Task: structure prediction
Amino acid sequence: MTRHIPNLLTLSRIILSVWLLFASEAPLLFAFLYAACGLSDVLDGAIARRKHWESPLGARLDSVADMVFCLAVLVYMIQWLGPAAVHFIPWIIAIAVIRFVNLLIAAIKYRSFAMLHTWGNKLTGAVLFTAPLFLLLNWQVLLWPVCILAVLTAVEETAIHLTSSKLDVNRRSLYTGRR
Result:
């Protein structure tokens, strides 16, 4: 049973992410759920790697949990921004389209739906995790660099898929091989 702890943590992130959608009117509850999602994201992979419990299922589940979490946060941010959200929607659509194309490329080329764990994607995830804080502090201007970074890292993933002969989900960047 203990071998499944990373996957249970990942599943908890999916459930907590859905709850985020209902906590937007309660800032303290939202902050607690948000922090719990972030903690589960850090812990699931760290425990799996440390205990050598990695699995293809766990990697896929982690990608699904990340997408559900991002969608929940996106809904929250659009609600928070109100009419100003219209400025960010084209960026969000572009990022989503590029990420979807990346999944299609991986599915066709490697016969696997895969998202890469590049340094850029990890940085984007960390910066994106702080984005709701920008809203709470009225620092909306900092959302623009988040959008630019997300587009650049999505394009980097596309370039990696197009130039790689085999799937390496742990590739560091376009300019380096496996870690």
User: Anything to note?
Assistant: The first helix runs from residue 5 to 20. Residues 88-179 form one domain. DSSP finds six helices and no strands in the chain. The chain has a mean pLDDT of 89.
